[in-house]
Design goal:
341 residues; alpha/beta; 434 Repressor (Amino-terminal Domain); Rossmann fold; 3 domains; six-stranded mixed sheet; 12 strands; 44% helix; elongated
């Protein structure tokens, strides 16, 4: 017999184990979300019946009245939060989305497992009505844990292509393809890239878009054209230095963020390379930083403030209709041409 959870009740994890699926899939079946195969849905429903699992749809009603507060959760360090323009823009967009409501916004940094556990206890106590979660990493369990307690949750970005929690994202792969194709159209043939963190889907998508475009444009593509960064300016400097060491004849750089592109520009200047005469550079985000680099940065714009407002809209819909199907929104990106390419 399967082990029981607290108070002898079967848990969502036990249902998932018996059905041979992930707990996110169980949540989607329970919430009647689309995109689940009939065979998988049947297996989950059988496991629910066999274990006698009772979905906790009533938990919110039992928890008491609304708090009129939502949390914006950022699982990053203070250094990254305060130095990357993305976060200030997303906060601005979220604030605009909440401006015509009575909801208060609570900002929370979750940097450790202890802080995650403390936030989960806060959420379980129903001190908030919903959660906006940005900068998600591949193995972050927080979205699923919030979903299991029927807490309305919307992600800014996603953990993988199989995300099971509502999200708002940008066309990261398409934006990267556009950037590389522009570089190739101007005659650049040795186009290198500086990636973001490998454990973030946003970085994986931008790398995929880069590789798809560069393989089509450059016959002699070499995997060593790819240097790892972590979305910080320092990583952009170091990665650019390594790329110059390996490929002194490179003529273009696609950096997966404006901040890393700024670091790359610093290294290129120190190495005596002229931008864009010797090396063209394109970033990603179109943050305010892009207009203050020297020369001004050509970049891929993702409408971060719009994404923040859209996240709020999706969250408000969830709060108004608990148990509704999850939603995903992907916004377009566009190339903004300035002086570096």
């Amino acid at each position: 017999m399967a082990a029981r959870g607290r108070f002898g009740q079967p848990t969502l994890e036990q249902v998932a184990a018996l059905a041979g699926v992930g707990r996110g899939t169980v949540s989607r079946v329970i919430n009647k979300s689309p995109g689940v195969r009939d065979s998988t849905r049947h297996a989950v429903e059988q496991a629910i019946a066999e274990l006698g699992y009772i979905p906790n749809h009533a938990a919110r009603a039992l928890a008491g009245s609304r708090t009129d507060a939502v949390a914006l959760v950022v699982p990053e360090t203070e250094k990254r939060f305060f130095t990357e323009p993305y976060f200030s823009e997303i906060i601005h967009g979220v604030g605009m989305g909440l401006a015509d409501t009575e909801l208060q916004l609570l900002l929370t940094l979750v940097r450790t497992e202890r802080e995650r556990g403390r936030f989960l206890q806060y959420a379980k106590a129903r001190r908030i009505d919903g959660v906006l979660l940005v900068s998600v990493h591949r193995d972050d369990p927080l979205p699923d844990l919030l979903s299991e307690m029927d807490m309305p949750t919307v992600l800014g970005g996603r953990r993988s292509s199989d995300e099971t929690v509502s999200y708002v994202d940008s066309d990261n792969a398409g934006g990267a393809r556009t950037a590389v194709r522009h570089l190739a159209s101007t005659g650049r043939r040795k186009i290198v890239t500086i990636t973001g963190r490998a454990d973030m889907y946003v970085a994986q998508c931008r790398l995929r878009g880069y590789e798809e475009a560069v393989r089509g444009a450059c016959e002699d593509f070499d995997p060593s054209w790819v240097a790892a960064g972590d979305f910080t300016e320092e990583s952009g400097r170091h990665a650019m230095a390594e790329l110059l060491r390996l490929h002194p004849d490179l003529d273009a750089v696609f950096a997966a963020s404006d901040v890393m592109a700024a670091g790359a520009l610093h290294t290129l200047r120190a190495a005596g390379r002229r931008v864009p005469d010797d090396v063209a550079v394109i970033g990603f985000d179109d943050s305010p930083l892009a207009q203050h680099t020297d020369p001004q940065l050509t970049t891929v714009r993702q409408p971060v403030e719009e994404m923040g407002r859209t996240m709020v809209g999706v969250l408000l819909d969830q709060m108004a209709a608990p148990g509704a199907a999850w939603r995903n929104v992907v916004v377009r990106t566009e190339l903004v041409r300035r002086d570096t390419a």
